[in-house]
Amino acid sequence: MTKTSPLIVALDYDNTKDAIALTHELKGQPIWFKIGLELMMNGGIVLAKQLTELGHNVFLDGKFMDIPNTVAGAVRGVTSMGVKMLNVHALGGTRMMRAAKDASIEQAEKLGIASPLVIAVTILTSVAEEELKELGFKNNKVSEQVVLLAKLAKEAGLDGVVASVHEAKMIREACGDDFVIVTPGIRLDDSNNDDQRRIATPQVAIKEGASHIVVGRPITKAEDKIAVCQKILADIC
Fold first, then answer.
1. Is residue 1 part of a domain?
2. How far is the CA of 84 from the CAs of 52, 79, 180, 220, in angstroms?
3. Is 2 inside any structural domain?
4. Which residues pair with 214 in a beta bridge?
5. CA dihedral of 136, 139, 141, 145, whole degrees rounded to 10
6. Mean pLDDT, the chain, as a whole number?
7. What average pLDDT does this structure show over 165-185?
8. For residue 77, what are the domain limits?
9. What CATH code is carried by the domain that includes residue 130?
10. How far is residue 166 CA from its own chain's centroid?
11. Angle at 122 between CA 60 and CA 102, to 5 degrees
12. Catalytic residues
């Protein structure tokens, strides 16, 4: 598995047993595995370390947001696990984001390992414009708010952001070719939207500028999970 594989499979489970079963089923596929909050609270932290020790690329989707010192401490811990990617909330501010990136580099150098990609969550793909207004944002346009946060993340030294496909092209233009854009809300043509609002197919996401796509239920609920992974990779690589 390579660090640059575009496909991230979300381990959207509430237990490690099912998550481990999926990793075994997809063993050998050129993919990443994402561990989110639900699994983190149900043994996912230990699982993240186990998966990295087995050579898997892991994205720890912890969405850290706290005072800079606290986030830096959390990032040092995550970096020690050997994960390849982690994220913080851009709304935590420039100082917090910079502290996170600095902590990841320092800890990686201390351990003699590669520093993980540190990316920022912009606006969740479940959030619509009316909700931005409810939250009191001056800028009620989701796309403009996302690009603003992406620029802040880049200025803070982060490697990229999490953003929906609808903002990917604007972020790519604003932040350059080397900026990582991880796009969730990916659905196949015949998939259910579930709780995501700003969604797209894998091909559209990559075409619009995403460097990585996160796919959950279209793979985890599929009868032939390997076939779905391979089809997605064939379509976007």
1. no
2. 8, 8, 13, 22
3. no
4. 8
5. -100
6. 92
7. 95
8. 7-236
9. 3.20.20.70
10. 16
11. 55
12. 63
What count of other Cβ atoms lies within 10 Å of the Cβ of residue 110? Answer: 11
User: For tokens 């043994």, what's the residue?
Assistant: 43
- Please state the domain count of the chain: 1
Structure tokens at 145: 């708010």
Residue 98 lies in a domain: yes
- At 147, list the tokens: 């690009």
DSSP the chain: --TT-SEEEE---SSHHHHHHHHHHTTTSS-EEEE-HHHIIIIIHHHHHHHHHTT-EEEEEEEE-S-HHHHHHHHHHHHHTT-SEEEEEGGG-HHHHHHHHHHHHHHHHHHTSPPPEEEEE-S-TT--HHHHHHTT-S---HHHHHHHHHHHHHHTT-SEEE--HHHHHHHHHHH-TTSEEEE--B--TT---TT-SS-B-HHHHHHTT-SEEEE-HHHHT-SSHHHHHHHHHHHH-
Q: What pLDDT score was predicted for residue 135?
A: 85
pLDDT digits (tens, 9 = 90+) for 177-194: 999 999 998 988 654 545
Task: Fill in the amino acid letter for 134.
Answer: E
- Contact criterion met (CB below 8 Å) for 55 and 30: no
pTM of full prediction above 0.85:
yes
In a domain, 24, yes or no: yes
pLDDT-based confidence at residue 195 (cuts at 50, 70, 90) = very low
